[in-house]
Design brief:
Family: Belongs to the LysR transcriptional regulatory family.
Distance between the termini: 77 Å
GO molecular function: DNA-binding transcription factor activity; sequence-specific DNA binding
Oligomer: single chain
Strand content: 15-25%
Helix content: 40-55%
Protein name: Transcriptional regulator, LysR family
Keywords: DNA-binding, Transcription, Transcription regulation
CATH architecture of the largest domain: 3-Layer(aba) Sandwich
Number of domains: 3
Radius of gyration: 24 Å
C-alpha cells in the first residue's frame, strides 16, 4: 500500500473509532486497514493507536500525526477543488444523506438533474429518518431539519419550509370545517411520527401554539400522510411544497391560513474540514432550484389516488 493510502487509512480509523467502520468507509477489508496502520507505525517507529478489545484511541503522538495528516489532506482537497473549478466540470463521487420524504421528493430529483449536467459526477443518495454520523460513515453532506451539530460540522441554510393545514372537500363536507385552533381538537388529524413534524405549530415567534391533536392515521412519511388526506381520511399539516399543487387543483383546501407558523429551515450539513467543489456546487444548485420545485410534485390525477365518494349527511 502506498504511503498516502496508509495515512488515509489511519485518518479513517481515528475518525470512525474502529477498524471495521474504517474498512466500510474506505470499502476495504478490515485486515487491509489493520495492515496499513501497522505498516505506518512500523515505518514511523512509534505506536499511534491504543488497542484493546473494547477501546481504540490515538496515542499522544497519534493525535499529533492525525492533526498534521488532516491538514495535508485538506490542502490536497483544496488543490483538487481549485483544479475542478478551473475546469468548470465536476467529477468523482458525492455521497449525500437526506431526511425523510423531503429528500426523496425534492433533493433526489435535483441530484439527478445535476448529474445530467455533470456526466463525470457519481452520486450515492441515502434517504433515512435516522441521524447519520456523516464523518464516521464517510458522507460528504447531509440534508437535515436540525442545525444543532458539533464542531466537526458546518451548516448552511438551503431553504425555509412553510407548513400549512389542509383537507379534502369530501372530508370537510362530512366532518365540517375548522375555523379556530380549538376546532382542530374535534377533528381527525393525520399525525406525523417524524420528530421535526410531530407537533403542529401555529402562529409566529413567541405566540406560537401547538394544540394537542389526535387521529386514527399516523405515519413517518409525508407522501403517506398526503395520500390519506387526499382520500378524505382527515386533516393534514405538511410543508406547503407538498400540498400546493393539490390545493391549486382543488383536491385539497387550505385551512386556518391566518394561523400560519414560522417556516422550518432545511440545512445542508457537511464536515468542517472539507468542502469539496462538488459539495459547494450541489448546495448552490439546490438553493437555486428549490423555489421552482412545485412542478416536481405529481398532480392528483397522476398520483394513483383513490378518491372516495362524496358522503352527504
Amino acid at each position: 500500500m502506498r504511503r498516502w493510502e496508509t495515512y488515509e487509512a489511519f485518518i479513517a480509523v481515528v475518525e470512525c473509532g474502529s477498524f471495521t467502520a474504517a474498512a466500510e468507509r474506505l470499502r476495504l477489508s478490515k485486515s487491509a486497514i489493520s495492515r496499513s496502520v501497522s505498516s505506518l507505525e512500523a515505518r514511523l517507529g512509534s505506536q499511534l493507536l491504543f488497542r484493546t478489545t473494547r477501546r481504540l484511541a490515538p496515542t499522544d503522538l497519534g493525535r499529533s500525526v492525525y492533526r498534521r495528516c488532516v491538514e495535508l489532506f485538506d490542502m490536497l482537497a483544496e488543490i483538487d477543488a481549485e483544479a475542478m473549478e478551473h475546469d468548470a466540470s465536476l467529477r468523482g463521487k458525492l455521497r449525500i444523506v437526506a431526511s425523510d420524504s423531503f429528500g426523496e421528493c425534492y433533493i433526489a430529483p435535483l441530484a439527478a438533474e445535476m448529474m445530467r449536467l455533470h456526466e463525470q459526477l457519481e452520486i450515492e443518495f441515502l434517504v433515512t429518518d435516522r441521524t447519520i454520523d456523516i464523518v464516521a460513515d464517510g458522507y460528504d453532506m447531509a440534508i437535515r431539519y436540525n442545525a444543532q451539530v458539533d464542531s466537526s460540522l458546518k451548516v448552511q441554510k438551503l431553504y425555509e419550509l412553510p407548513h400549512i393545514c389542509a383537507a379534502s372537500p369530501e372530508y370537510l363536507l362530512r366532518a365540517g370545517t375548522p375555523f379556530t385552533l380549538a376546532d382542530l381538537t374535534r377533528h381527525n388529524c393525520l399525525v406525523s411520527t417524524f420528530e421535526a413534524c410531530h407537533a403542529w405549530r401555529f402562529g409566529m415567534g413567541r405566540t406560537q401554539k401547538t394544540p394537542n391533536l389526535s387521529g386514527n392515521w399516523c405515519s413517518n412519511n409525508g407522501p403517506a400522510l398526503l395520500t390519506a388526506a387526499l382520500n378524505g381520511i382527515g386533516i393534514v399539516w405538511l410543508p406547503e411544497l407538498y400540498l400546493r399543487p393539490y390545493i391549486k387543483a382543488g383536491a385539497l383546501i387550505e385551512l386556518l391560513g391566518e394561523h400560519r407558523s414560522d417556516p422550518m429551515p432545511v440545512w445542508a450539513v457537511y464536515p468542517a474540514r472539507r468542502q469539496a467543489a462538488k459539495v459547494r456546487a450541489f448546495i448552490d444548485y439546490v438553493k437555486s432550484r428549490l423555489p421552482a420545485a412545485e412542478g416536481m410534485t405529481p398532480e392528483p390525477h397522476l398520483a394513483g389516488i383513490v378518491r372516495p365518494p362524496v358522503l352527504v349527511a
